[in-house]
Design brief:
19% of the residues are buried. Helices cover 21% and strands 23% of the residues. It has a 5-stranded antiparallel sheet, covered by helices on one side. The protein has 2 helices and 5 strands; from the N terminus they run αβββαββ. Bound molecules: 2'-deoxyguanosine-5'-monophosphate. 2'-deoxyguanosine-5'-monophosphate binds next to strand 2.
Length: 111
């Protein structure tokens, strides 16, 4: 499949994976928006959050578990998780991913 994050997950595009298991990979964002900015990506190709089905419940929980584990590893007590669904919400890569951001304060509401 001609998908950037599928290719990174399959190691066809070199990228430093900071986490890998049977269901997901994680790597640092190429354009970091915070001192820690990690992308948590399922190996299964799902275009966007709106395409999730009840069959993906465990996978979604797993992505959050990976995010929590990485937040501990990065020594983040405060962090923000972001999942952009659709171009209007800021999605630019069409493979579902969770952003783990930390290391600075964040404002609310988000831009
Ligand atoms: P989003 O806008 O929510 O779809 O987030 C996509 C993110 O992916 C964006 O913050 C930049 C990042 N990104 C795009 N291409 C690459 C890449 O080739 N390598 C890495 N590490 N990150 C990428």
């Amino acid at each position: 499949m001609n998908c950037l994050f599928c290719k990174i997950a399959r190691r066809e595009i070199p990228s430093e994976l900071i986490h890998e298991d049977t269901e997901a990979v994680a790597f640092r964002d190429i354009h970091p928006q915070a001192p820690t900015h990690i992308l948590i990506v399922p190996k299964k190709h799902i275009e966007k959050h709106a395409d999730l089905s009840t069959q993906d419940k465990a996978l979604l929980g797993h992505l959050h578990e990976v995010a929590r584990t990485l937040a501990v590893r990065e020594k983040l007590s405060d962090y923000r998780l972001v999942l952009n669904n659709g171009a209007g919400a800021g999605q630019s890569v069409w493979h579902l991913h969770l952003h783990l951001l930390g290391g600075r304060n964040f404002s609310w509401p988000p831009g």
